[in-house]
Amino acid sequence: MKHVVVYFSQTGNTKKVGEVIRDAIESIAGQCDIVRMEEADIKVLGGYDLIGLGCPTFAYAEPANVKAFIRTMGPLKGKQSFIFSTYGGHPGNVLPSMARKLRRQGLKVVGGFNCDGWDHMPHYTSPWYTEGHPDEVDLKAAAYFGREMAQRSRMINGGEKVSLPKFQWLKGFYEEGPKTTQVNRPLSRDFKIKMTVDTKECRYPKCRLCVDNCPVNAIDLSVSPVVFRKGCISCYFCEMLCPTGAIEADPASVKAHQQGTIEMLLQRKYPEFFEKAKTELIDNRSTLYRMLVDRVEIGNMLTMYEEFLDKRPRYIIRK
Predict the structure, then answer these.
(1) What is the DSSP annotation of 241-289?
(2) String of b and e for 18-48 (b: at least 16 CB within 10 Å)?
């Protein structure tokens, strides 16, 4: 059997998890390749028996470019697959959503895995509570998952009866279930956070960070006027990467979004999450996380947000 892990990763979190899963599968099966989703060829993937697909969580769902990629996977009908994701705040419905889409393309989903990943969104506190993740505990779990996928795939291929996973849709928190979820759709207007690009401060074409790393090709600085955020999914990666501050998130807009988020958290009883974190999840959190959990109270969250918009770049892509 041939195995491959396909991943989309912006900050390197999902890539790190994917590499650990690849190594774990290889330790059991003797072979497993890994490829960036942007470089994956469906015809080439047809030569694999087990295909893993991983991505970060964008607005509680899989990114729009991952959804588009899955729609091209019809020729892989009958193949075994597994899914994995990383998330900076809440796992959302990524696993059930991806599983449903893959099954519609005719693939057999044999497993799923997700874990924390440090997030760098402009409207989050810094450091965020998942700083340092995925950590050793997360990666150890990812390795266990990889070995399990290799073994499960071998059993299925050998004709053994194996129970396939059932992914539960989360409801009543941020998500409303599979039929009414409207998050993470491509946008071109009505953004929650206003962003602008200053062509005088921009170093294009010498610097192409925003253009080359936009997951949905929403930026084109080669034309006049420039194309900015056409079909954008509000991942804010361009703002985080910009070394000069040419791409700017409006501070007032950021604050307004923070206020709205906190009001929503109050309505959805978000403090319960932190209460659970102090007990059930404590073994899988860094010291920083534990310190932050003790500090957080919904009433004081606004005062915890600090201004980091003047620090450029706010994120440097990992090699």
Answers:
(1) H-SSS-EEE-HHHHHHHHHHHHHHHHHTTTHHHHHHHHHTTGGGS-HHH
(2) bbbbbbbbbebbeebebbebeebeeeebeeb
Counting Cα atoms < 13 Å in the Cβ hemisphere of 282 gives 9
Pairing of the two strands 33-36 and 3-7: parallel
pLDDT tens per residue, the chain (319 residues)? 999 999 999 889 999 999 999 999 999 999 999 999 999 999 999 999 999 999 999 877 898 889 999 999 999 999 999 999 998 877 788 999 999 999 999 999 999 999 988 877 766 655 566 777 898 889 999 999 999 999 999 999 999 999 888 888 876 444 444 433 344 455 545 566 788 899 899 999 999 999 998 888 889 999 988 999 888 877 888 988 899 989 988 878 777 776 666 565 555 445 555 555 555 544 444 444 455 555 555 444 444 444 444 567 877 776 5
Among the residues of 30-74, which ranges form H helices? Answer: 42-45, 64-70
- Spell out a b/e string for 247-256, using b for 16 or more CB atoms within 10 Å of the CB, else e: bbbbeebbee
Q: Are 147 and 24 in contact (CB under 8 A)?
A: yes
User: Would you state the structure tokens that stand for residue 180, as one six-digit string?
Assistant: 């009414």
Query: What are the DSSP E strand ranges found in the chain?
Result: 3-7, 33-36, 50-56, 80-87, 108-116, 195-197, 219-220, 227-228, 247-249
Q: Do residues 53 and 87 touch, judged by C-beta distance below 8 A?
A: no
**CB-based contact 21:84 (threshold 8 Å):** yes
Structure token digits, residue 202: 């921009």
> Distance between CA 183 and CA 94 in Å, rounded?
11
> Distance (Å, rounded) from C-alpha 182 to C-alpha 179?
9
* Nearest-angstrom CA–CA distance, 4 and 35: 8
The model's pTM is: 0.78
What domains sit in the chain, N to C, each tagged with a CATH number? 3-157 (3.40.50.360), 195-304 (no CATH)
In degrees and rounded to multiples of 5, residue 275 shows phi and psi of -65, -45
